[in-house]
Amino acid sequence: MAEAPKATREAIEAVDLAENPYKNDFPLLANNPHLTFLDSAATAQRPTVVLDAQRDFYERLNSNPLRGLYKLSVEATEAIDKVRRKVADFIGAPLSQGIVFTRNATESLNLLALSLGRSILGPGDEVCITIMEHHSNILPWQQVCRETGAKLVFMRPNEDCKLTAEEIEAKITRRTKIVSVTQVSNVLGVENPVKDIAKRAHAVGALCFVDGAQSVPHMGVNVQELGCDALAFSAHKMFGPMGIGVLWAKKDLLEKMPPFLTGGEMIDWVTEDSFGCAPVPQKFEAGTQDAAGIAGLGAAVDYMRAVKRENLEARERALVADLARKLGDLPFIRLIGPSNPNDHVAVVSFNVCGIHPHDVASILDSYDVAIRAGHHCAQPLLAWMGIESCCRASVAVYNDEQDIDNLVDGLKKVWEMFNGAE
Question: What is the domain class of 9-46+308-419 according to CATH?
């Protein structure tokens, strides 16, 4: 089994952040050279090849996949199957039948919770997640636990935002039936020890699901290497279109799960009072799929492969470390997340002392610097940390040192606006 490609420390240190060979691949950035875009954790920009792939589908293959026996429909179906195989290979999945196309990671996680969770959970059972989960990996489990009488248990990080072996062992017990964790926090930027979590889950007879929305775009992810039972992620955070997500799960698990949505395409047969499901993955793909979006996802995978995931990771690791160090040097900035700049994955969250994050983001926008401000769909985490909101800057391969410096200069202007020049 080949391991997912990883950036070496030497490769990270060799990155020249002053050079930017990627920005011109992304039309929005190329057409707006004044823009400093640091909100890729919310959604990434799209390269030309992705936009072309969507247009190409509508111009060359536009028809309803699966429904027609004519050539155009067959070719559209084959195009979707090709992307399914491509995505499976991209994440190290052994079978393309384990790839289910959804609208986004949120739908993928809801599918797991509301289909499988309802089927296997009962009173006295536990679902274990972390306090740092996105709402998409909290609310579905809250809902299914209320319905089934199961209990929701939270793992909490230490003072340096890390999940310890002791915490993992204490919270994942023989009562645990499902563990569902984010691989990378969208607020803290910390990478969780998913391999260790999966190993502990399986040792007590539990299933392990991974929210890869913030990891798949930024690092090599191999589901067999991780040892998880399911992985969810979104295309739009990895240079692909909005409205397309992926759920990978072990094929035998998908076969045991009841359908999440019912209607066209997901059936084998229907009578007046019953129906039989199509084989996986069609069992979970009711209705007409966004075939052009799937084509765009395939192009995004091709783009990431052309860049090489280890090169992409090296550049982003160098960028985010530079970002964390430069923000940390500002006396009026309070950093949120791991103390080591090298422990952040694509995200640095922070607050400006005495200034509301919404004001910070609005003023930065007047200088053409785009960051995120708010609770980042992680209110339990922020409440646990004792804050209501924070600023977040997130990078992607198309960013460079100038973008980081523009943010730093903008933050100095924000501070001066409220406190006067030194």
Answer: alpha beta
